[in-house]
Amino acid sequence: MAAALQLDRVSKTYGAMRAVDNVSILIREGERVALIGASGSGKSTLIRLASGLILADAQGSGTGAVHAFGLKVQESGRLASEVRAARRNIGLVFQQFALAGRLSVMTNVLVGVLGRIGALRGTLGLFNADEKRTAYAALAEVGIAQHAAKRARELSGGQQQRVAIARALVQGAKLVLADEPIASLDPKSAKRVMDTLVTMSRDHGIALVVSLHQVDYATAYFDRVIAMNAGRVVFDGPASQINAAFLTELYGASAEELILPSQFAVAAPADAAPSHTLS
Ligand SMILES: Nc1ncnc2c1ncn2[C@@H]1O[C@H](COP(=O)(O)OP(=O)(O)OP(=O)(O)O)[C@@H](O)[C@H]1O
């Protein structure tokens, strides 16, 4: 079985800054993984490398290969010829909502179909009834079908994130990479978005990698956590091992920005919680 995502000794340098430093990661099909780390630790860069939005360093200790479901995304600082096919399997949900604000919610979701239909039909917005039904069903699944006709910019931040999740569903993504999807949301909206992501993953067997600033969400929703510091993976293991003392060991004083004050403690609902929190 091909891995959902495989990074082999990938690095990315900006000037003198090694944003991602020789990282190797394997995510299995259907697996859910939280990516944590203090600001500037390399989480966003890693997600952009994984989706082929940016190129890895051509030289370094490895060839910097990225594969998704056995299809090559990039290697040796070049996009692979099969990158389009590889990307079809990858849905993206970003902190900045990455929706076309003037267009309707429905149209934004239908963009997910574009990888599968002819460019001309897509450009002209000629989506067929089946595609529209699928998009509406995806919006219903993430709980915002009632907003289908509104312009995307009229929705709240959390609702916009759920539009992006519906778009990934319509795309038929088998792996969703979410980069700080809850960073600018209030706690209630953040929880709703996390519930939606995890339920989507569970119900459709979609692998999920979510970068998170706050560790509490990582341990409430995920079994496996990958922690980054200064571009390197400093921990890859069970979420149950993550606690305040361990974070201080990993990050020193910067651990503070990763831990929520106790009054904001996060509890995932039973149907979205990882196995390590279920009795
Ligand atoms: N386009 C760029 N040009 C120059 N430096 C960059 C660029 N993108 C990222 N960096 C640098 O690379 C390092 C890693 O940044 P990255 O955004 O990946 O971290 P992060 O863990 O996602 O941080 P945050 O939680 O603040 O989003 C930082 O020092 C950042 O300043």
TrEMBL record:
GO terms for molecular function: ATP binding. It holds the Pfam family ABC_tran. Belongs to the ABC transporter superfamily. The keyword Translocase applies. PANTHER family: AMINO ACID IMPORT ATP-BINDING PROTEIN (PTHR43166), PHOSPHONATES IMPORT ATP-BINDING PROTEIN PHNC (PTHR43166:SF6). It comes from the Bacteria. This is Phosphonate ABC transporter ATP-binding protein. Keywords: ATP-binding, Cell membrane, Membrane, Nucleotide-binding, Translocase, Transport. InterPro entries: AAA+_ATPase (IPR003593), ABC_transporter-like_ATP-bd (IPR003439), ABC_transporter-like_CS (IPR017871), ABC_transpr_PhnC (IPR012693), MetN_ABC_transporter-like (IPR050086), P-loop_NTPase (IPR027417). Residues 5-255 form the ABC transporter domain. It comes from Ancylobacter koreensis.
